[in-house]
Amino acid sequence: ELATYMLELRQEFPILKRTVHGKPLVYFDNGATVQKPEAVIESMNAYYRELNSNIHRGVHFLSGEATDAYEQAREKVRQFINARSSKEVIFVRGTTEGINLVANTFGRQLAAGDEVIVSMMEHHANIVPWQILRDQLGIVLKVAPVDEDGELDMAALNAMISAKTKLISVTHVSNALGTINPVKQIVDLAHLHEIPVLLDGAQAVPHLKVDVQELDCDFYAFSAHKMYGPTGIGVLYGKEALLESMPVWQGGGDMIDHVSFEKTTYAGLPHKFEAGTPAIAEGIGLGVACDWLMQADLAKVAAWEEILLNYATEQMQQIPGMRILGTAKHKAGVISFVIDGVHAQDIGVLIDQLGVAIRTGHHCAMPVLHHFGVDATARASFALYNTKEEVDIFIAALNRACDMLR
Ligand code: PMP
User: Is 156 exposed, middle or buried (0-12, 13-18, 19+ CB in 10 A)?
Assistant: First the structure.
């Protein structure tokens, strides 16, 4: 049965066996980062024990092995998102760097008056890079609104598209609200007008099966650390022709073909966008995380997280004064909430004493919280290893915190 299968997967996460404040850890801060299975941790240890050397340029044996392991990881990522070619998989530091890469290459080709459309529910990583371009190049940043359930207003988005629109950049899944956006519909709409689409997949890849060819998106950015892999690495997927057409960004080793003071030529994809020694162990860890998730089966993961989401939501709604922000029909396992008369921060601190880790604050999405009239929420977010028993502990802790704070 599903719950039993998920419990088996849970056994692979060593950190979940520890206690905090003398209580068993209930880790519900998965939107910030998720825990790592043994296989991922071990792959990185093994790299440093057995393979460590710089890649792509060495003639010696170890460098060859390390290069192969790193490039195999790229192939695993390709499979994981079903890209056509591993040339379309650019290794970056994370979602943030992936979006900044697009802003600093594709975006550099925009002119004053050109328009980029984002949504109101974006993470700051998909707002600020475009504002920097606005200040430097005079582009126009348009913001598609969300409704009171936290769903994107597709009609308004449609109405915003003009002959000047050069990019639509939206999140696949909102980290602040949990909303799963109709990204295929957005891509189809944009493509009617020949506008490319960037999807921020940071919160999507750990929860849903993502197929970039099926979505037909032009760019897709995500972070390894939110999908059971290490910090310090992530991916920018881009369609090959588009990546080919873009200017280079960071310059240095690995991204060149030939260098002289008169003229330098650049490496082909994907290395063109990968200057300097990369995060090698992390890349290998990401490859293992991709394998691990493909084997775990994202359909089962999504089904389980939906059970947890519904189970927790129903119980939370019984708590007096509870307001859940983000009540979209299609939602991932994220519950952002405020409780009348109680500060989000205080809830977080009190339930931490009972072993429950959640996030409080603005979740790097200040504009959408402002839209809902709050500056901070408490947020519980689930991963595949969470259980209904943990939800029960969380609900009991919330009730206790409310009793103490009101
Ligand atoms: N976008 C979304 C939707 C996110 O949830 C996050 C991480 N909170 C990011 C972007 C940024 O990811 P990172 O910090 O790993 O670059």
Answer: middle
Q: Is the pLDDT of residue 388 over 90?
A: yes
Averaged pLDDT, 203-223? 98
Asked if the model's pLDDT at residue 45 lies above 90, the reply is yes
Q: What distance in angstroms lies between residue 188's CA and the mean position of ligand 1's atoms?
A: 25
The conformation of residue 20, written as its DSSP 8-state character, comes to: E
- What is the pLDDT confidence band of residue 57, given thresholds at 50, 70 and 90? confident
For atom 12 of ligand 1, the residue with the nearest CA is: 95
Q: Hey, what amino acid is at 302?
A: A
Q: Encode 284-319: b = buried (16+ Cβ within 10 Å), e = exposed.
A: bbbbbbbbbbeebebeebbebbebbbebbbebbeee
**Which residue is listed with tokens 């999807």?**
199
Tell me: the pLDDT tens digits for 20-39?
Answer: 999 999 999 999 999 999 99
CA of 258 to the centre of ligand 1 (A): 35
Classify residue 361 as exposed, middle or buried by CB count within 10 Å of its CB (0-12, 13-18, 19+). middle
Please state the atom number of ligand 1 nearest to the C-alpha of residue 94.
16
pLDDT in tens, 258-314: 999 999 999 999 999 999 999 999 999 999 999 999 999 999 999 999 999 999 999
Cα–Cα distance list, 380 to 177, 237, 340, 347 (Å): 11, 29, 17, 11
Q: What is the pLDDT of residues 86-134, one digit of tens each?
A: 999 999 999 999 999 999 999 999 999 999 999 999 999 999 999 999 9
d(CA 107, CA 127): 13
Report which ligand 1 atom has the smallest distance to the Cα of 125.
Answer: 10
Residues with CB under 6 A from ligand 1: 94-96, 123, 125, 171, 175, 200, 202-203, 223, 364
CA distances from 344 to 30, 122, 209, 371 (A): 17, 21, 32, 17
Gap between the Cα atoms of 273 and 278, Å rounded? 11
Which pair of tokens denotes residue 105?
């290459």
- The per-residue pLDDT for 406 is 85
Rounded distance between C-alpha atoms, residue 163 and residue 166, angstroms: 8
